[in-house]
Structures are given as structure tokens and as C-alpha cells.
Fold each of these.
Amino acid sequence: MSSPRKISDSTVRRLSSYLRTLDSLRARGHDTVSSVHLAAAGGLTPAQVRKDLSFFGSFGVRGRGYDVHVLRGEIARILGLDRKWSTVVVGAGRLGSALASYPRFSRQGFRIVALFDNDSERLGTRIGDAEILPATELESYVRQHEVSFGILTTPASAAQETADRLVAGGIRGILNFTPTVPEVPETVHLRNVNLTIELEGLSFAIREAEIREGPQEGESD
Amino acid sequence: MSSPRKISDSTVRRLSSYLRTLDSLRARGHDTVSSVHLAAAGGLTPAQVRKDLSFFGSFGVRGRGYDVHVLRGEIARILGLDRKWSTVVVGAGRLGSALASYPRFSRQGFRIVALFDNDSERLGTRIGDAEILPATELESYVRQHEVSFGILTTPASAAQETADRLVAGGIRGILNFTPTVPEVPETVHLRNVNLTIELEGLSFAIREAEIREGPQEGESD
């Protein structure tokens, strides 16, 4: 918090959230946006928004706000979204297929170039533009096509082996949806996604509200 | 940060992460865990772990660590996971179907009781134990079955109308995977999931590493 150079994970999350709001404003033809609007859309305070954006050298014009297009471009550049990132999905089950066809990935520059699976019945099928290939080809494919990111949706038992293959092929980042955390070298960036965490946030919030409000009457009739 | 009563979203996230680690330890037959291990699994400092857990009244035994089963039970209770939450998925496309069959949801008490969709070709199909029902029945189903949570995976254009139906049926929380943010009354808890955010975290990290290391040579051979 005291180091001016280190950008925290929560700052990156807020930048992603601003980007989303700016995309939606752009789509609706807006050219300017206030810190108040950006704050409201992200559940933040305007002061937090102004602090974040000044940190990145972007200043609004008083009474007029930020230029939607300029600000969007700046945040996209900071997040590394001003280029294309070749991405593979490993595990072509329900979740893998859903992620491979998630439209916002490609819109932000994450191009799904192939899926990989062990199940021979799935091979050759296409999800969007990407073909399902045999998992045995993973390492050579990643190397040959200079794939940057691997999205891991295999069963937990295959996670480490798959991560090893991605690393051997020269992958730069892994987005892990499996419930285990594979070990990767320090040079490879790993992020673990926990889909349950948000539902747990909801159940936590409801439990807290109940405690605040006291015991509820049972609905007996 | 200064208020002792308010539990921040990031604390809830860390609790979810501890729970995950404890589940995996329990599955491997471990009975105790150190704050150092819990910290390493979540990418945190042991001091942070001890602070979080003392905050909730749970103290480890010096030299022995925390009891895995007791700690797991406490965190589950705090997160509201000591009961079953009936949950519906609205939108039975690839993402909705993947989420409806995501095994960890039911393991944590989020029981998917039904899916809803407008597409008549999907109706009657089962995903796991849950049937796909017509979206027109959403409100009455939620009311009749006292459904707690709705997971929203419809197209953006249907998000607000779907949220309205869930609210009219008496839903308590909505987990929104659509790119728009529907308006809901204050009494309904809403969480918005951004699947792109984690990939953006990866591209940001790689861009930062490149800046630190200076320009890379092109791979020209």
C-alpha cells in the first residue's frame, strides 16, 4: 500500500471493472464519463476512481469527466489488451467448451486457437473457430503456435500433468479452473479461479443480514 | 479497514480460499494444518492467516497448528455453508449447463434444483438432477420451492427481465454472469462475475514483467 510501483491485484480488478463500464458506455454511444458514474457502476467511491486513474496518469476534465475512448485505450494498454494473446483450453467438457465460446474473451484479445482433450469421441469437433485436438499434441502445439495462455479445465487428477505439458511447450500464463493448484516455475504466471467463491459471498451476505435482523419467524401456514 | 465489525469482501475471499485448502487436506487425511501451510496455499503471509482466523475466534495451538475439521466447520458456518441453498440457473446454454453440473456447488450446499430457458428445444432435458423448465415458470417456481439463489447466464438483453422475475418470486441472491448489471431491490444480494478479469490479470502480469525486464529480442531465426 505504501509502495508506489507495486500495483495490487485489487487495483487490477478495479481496472477490469472500469474497462467493462467503458465498453458498455461506448456501445451506447457515450463519449464522456464522470468518476461518479464509474464509481457507481463498480460499487466504489468517486475518490477511489479518481485515485486509481490519476495513478495511471489519466486526468479527467473538471465538469466534463473522462473521455471514454481515451480512457478505455489507456486501461486496455495497461492491462496488456492492446494485442492478441493466443490461448488454448485444455479439457473440452462442459466448462471448457463454455469458456472456449465465451464471446468476451476474444473481444478482449484472448483468441482461443484450440481445445485439447483425452476423449477420442470429442476430437475433431469445433467450438467456434477452434478444433478439439488430442491432449498428446499439447506441448508441440503450444510451442509451434507460440501460445501465450492455457485455460485448465481438466479433472483435478490431470491438472499437474497438463500444466507440465503447457510449461514444457513454453506457455506464459495458466488460468486454472481445477480444484487443485498445480506447481509451475516462477516464470509462468498462474491464476486460480474459484467459481464457488461468489456463491459463498452471497450465502455469507445473507447469513450476516439474518444475524443483523435477528431470528426470522418460520413461514408456518 | 478501521471498523472491527465489517467483514470485507477480500476477507470473505480468503475464508473461501482457506475452506478450499482445508477440504483438500481433509480429503488427504490430514488432521492439523499450520498457518504457514494455509498461507502458502493461498499466496498469503502466515501473519495474515493468523489475523483472519483470530478475528473469527479460532486459535491454533502453538507447535501443533489448527484442527482441520474444527476450522473447516467454523469457516463453513461463517460462510453460511452449514445448510442447503436451493439454487436455479437461468439460461441453459453452454455456460449455464456447465455451472449447473459444477460438482463443487452442490458439495458446498448450493443445490441446483432447476434450469430455465426460453428455447423450447432445450426443455425437459436434464442436467444432472435438474430439469430444464420454461422461463415463463420462473417466478412461480422460485416462490413455490423457496429458491434462495438464481444464477443468471441469459443473453444480456434478457438479464433485467429475468432478474425481475427472480425478485418477484422472492429470490434472496443473484449471481450474475451476464455482461450487464441488472437493477434489484436493496434486500436482494447481487454479485457480478467477470470471467475475463482473471485473464486480464494474467496479461497485466506478463506486460509488467516485460516492462521490468526491458524489451525482448524478436525471435528471428
Note: DSSP finds nine helices and nine strands in chain A.
Amino acid sequence: MDVLYVLEEEKAIVEQALARCLPASDVHPRRIHEAIRYATLGGGKRLRPIIVRAAAGALGHDPDLVTKAACAVECVHCSSLVLDDLPSMDDAPTRRGRPSTHRQFDVATAILAAHDLLMHAVGLVVENGIDVASGQRALAKAIRELSAAVGAGGMVGGQHVDLEVAGDSAVDPETLEYIQSRKTASLFVAAARGGAILLGADEARLEPLSDYARCLGLAYQIVDDLLDAEGDPETVGKETGKDAGRITFVTVHGSATAKDAAAGFVRTAHEALDRLDGETRMLREIADFCLSRSH
Amino acid sequence: MDVLYVLEEEKAIVEQALARCLPASDVHPRRIHEAIRYATLGGGKRLRPIIVRAAAGALGHDPDLVTKAACAVECVHCSSLVLDDLPSMDDAPTRRGRPSTHRQFDVATAILAAHDLLMHAVGLVVENGIDVASGQRALAKAIRELSAAVGAGGMVGGQHVDLEVAGDSAVDPETLEYIQSRKTASLFVAAARGGAILLGADEARLEPLSDYARCLGLAYQIVDDLLDAEGDPETVGKETGKDAGRITFVTVHGSATAKDAAAGFVRTAHEALDRLDGETRMLREIADFCLSRSH
């Protein structure tokens, strides 16, 4: 079957599940619920939740068993996008071809929606753990990994350092690596591991998934930076060229090296999957799709 | 023993536990960790974590068994204070007698610190669940209650409606009740129930704790509004009179009625404890202490 078709199908499953698991917009207080839905249901590639489902599939489980965990990861991701776009951070007027959440609503509502989405994500992981009777240790581990992926040692720390070095032209490669591994790769890793943990996967099976997801996350971020530097806003769905003055892999190493690096990370992601005994086709197609966006 | 002395002793236990369970400020990236500690360790009465410990005590358990859950509740509370103080919300320059977190650091760092504190809180509940071997169902229930207390049906919703009606002079009592029960009482309830749930308390024992905490939360908020309307900034530790233009129980019903209502809620809180078979002295002293602040 055609790769893009499969990804579109997966995306539709995730979209529907997200729409179901979020609070309805006609519930009081309506405006905050509308903001939560606006921030989450506004399109996007849904790669992270698809990874959650694909990782479960690769371990021989029905991907539907972890759809709630998949939605949780997407809620966390959308929450981080709302914050990234705020005036005090990237000050982005658009996201996914529409006004960013704080432009559509207001800054306070956007911040509160982001706050809610985090807790909503935690609630979804808990529900998923109950659904699959994951046991206390597995549930605790899955929540802890999600919490760590978001916190100051993960996405929060990555975003913080990213803002700290903005405008600084002499950023060392270690700092860049720190930002990219925390800001992007950490949630990819939580996506690949979270659902699998709820389904009882042991460390031996989680380890290749972690390596795969870390490399994929790094590749994805580089491709995203390439698209920003070179892409067409119509296709990318948000303003391009807004990283001018920001430090990215592309500004530090140049486009050619960045393309090579992205390809290298995707290659390593495939090698990690070689160590996983299972049906890894979906995970491989996601990796190839990420890379193909840069061409 | 003197009530205030006992509360001070409890406060010291919570302060020390909080200082231990937060990321050290010399960990990279330092500034975000400093902001997290600044937002959390800046004083405060620590009533909510003391309630967590006192509820465990009332059920016959060692309060130390739920100190991590107590810290989790305080992290959530401090996270909400950071958001409340933001320019897009109350725009408060000071908190607890010091610059508010976004004034001491910057808006982006404050928002990220608040985000981290939420996830840190979830991690602490998980750790506590593991420590006391609470089992999957109890752990899931405790996390779900905390998550619900924070989300759009709880504190986020309360703060949202509070901002929505700001400046509106004709707020109906139902809206006021909505705001106060969500913005303040919901976390008091999660505090009274959370640790108890981890220790295996059933609904029959949780129910009086819930009623107690809901009434105490409502009384506490009214007293807080009275202090803002009439108190001295030196004693209150933050600017007073800043609710001018905001809708509070005091602005809607007047000071005399507000004092009566607070006393009434504390009385009902005591009556709820009458239905609890256990050593409820500490919980009662907390309730009386809350009321005494208004005199």
C-alpha cells in the first residue's frame, strides 16, 4: 500500500480519537474548551501519535490499544506549540496555516489551554493504563517518562535554552545538540516508548525504540529547520524564514551538511529497528516520510 | 500544643521536603531550575500540603508517608500562582513580599517554570504511589483527581472565567460560586483526597474529607478576598487592593456577609469532620487558622 495513504489513514484515526477525547466545546466554560480544541484539532501531521501506535504494532500488539496514549502525546505536543508561539517566546502569528492560539483567542486563554492540555495528557495515559490493565509499575513508568519528557530536563529545558541563546551567533554544537535533543527528540522518544511500556514491553525491546525515536526526532528537527530556511510558507503552513537570528542546525552547519545529517540520523534510526524483532515497516515508513519532506 | 507552633512545624517539614524534591539550581540549564525553585520555595503558608499530611494522619497513617504527594499539591499551587501573576492575567508585580516570578526572571521563563512544576507534581504523585505500593487503581485515581483539579473543569476553568468576568460589575452569584469552587476549592479537595487515596482510603472515608476541603477552600478564598480588600500589604505579603474592579465574594456581598459566610463554611467543614472516624484535630486547627486570618 502507498506510504502516504497509510499515513493519511493513521492520521484520520488519530484526528477522530483526539476529537472524541477532548472536552466538547459546548461545555461551560466554552471559550477555554474552544481554545483547547482549536490548539489541538488544527491539523498537523500527527507524527508523534502515529509513532505511539506504530511502536505498539511493531511489538505485535493492536495499535488501537494505545490510541489514548497516542492522543496524550499529541496533547503534550500541541501544548508546547501553543507556548512556543506566545509573544514572550517565538511570537508567531500563524500556525498550521491559521492564527496561532493566542491570536485567535488571547494570551491568557492560550496559556491556560496549554496548561490544561498537559494535565489532560496525563489523564489519558492513566485511562489507557486502566484499559490495558498495565499494572502499577508500568503505569507509573509511562507517566514518569512523559512527565520527564516535558519537564525542565526535557522540552521545557530545551525551549528555555533555545530562547536563552536566541540572537547569540556563537553557539557551540553541544548547546545546539542539547536544544534539539530536549526540544524535539525527547517527546519522540516518549512517543515510541510510552504506549509500549503500558503494554508491558521490557527494556530490551524499548531500547531500540528509544534509539530509533531519538534519531528520528533529531532528523525531524533538522528537516523542519531546512524547510524554514528554504521552504515555501504555503506548503509549510506557517511563516518561513522566522528562524533568521535563531540558532538551528542549518544556521550552524549550513544546508548541505544539515541534509546529510538528517539522512544520517534516519539511517541510524533504521539500524536501531534492525535490532527489534517485529514488524517495523510502519516505523520505517514514518522515518522515510520525515526525510522526504526536505526534498 | 500551640496551634500556630504545630502549623509552623508542619510548614518546616514541607519546606524541607520541597527543597529536596525540586531540581537543584546548579543543574544545567540553571536559570530555569532557579526559576522553578524561586516560584516554589518563596514562603507561603503551605496549607495545601499540610492538609495532605493531616488527612493521612486523620485516617490513622503516618503523615510522612504522603509527604511527596503533599509536595506535589504545593507544586501545582505554586504553578498556578506563577500563571495568575503574569502580565496577561493579574499582572502582579509582587508575590509573598518578593518580585513575582516573571518579574524576577522573565515572562517566558515563568511560563516554562509553571509548565515544569505541573509535570513535576505528577512525577511526585507517581513516586509516592510507588513508595506506598498503592496499586494501579489507587495510583490512577490519585493522578486523575489531581489532573482534573488542575484542568479546564478545575483551576484552569476557574481562572479562565475569573479573567472573563473581570471588570464586569453584574456577575451573578452562580458565576462567583463557579470561580471560587474551581479556582481555589478544587485543589483543597485534591489535597485532602490525594494522599488518602494513595493510602487506600475508600469513598466512605474520602467523602467527609472532600466536604471538609471544599468548605475550607471556599472559606479560605473569602478570607483572602477580605484581606485584599481590608488588609495591610506588609502583613499579607502581596499588594492589597488589587482586586478593585475584580469580582470577589466581598465585592458582591459586602464584608459583613463575607465574614459570616467564611465562618459558616468553616462550621460546615467541622461538621464534615464529625462524620470521619479518626483523629481530626489537625484538620480542625487548619480550618480555624484559615478563619482567624480575617480578624
Note: Residues 31 and 161 of chain A are 32 Å apart (CA to CA).
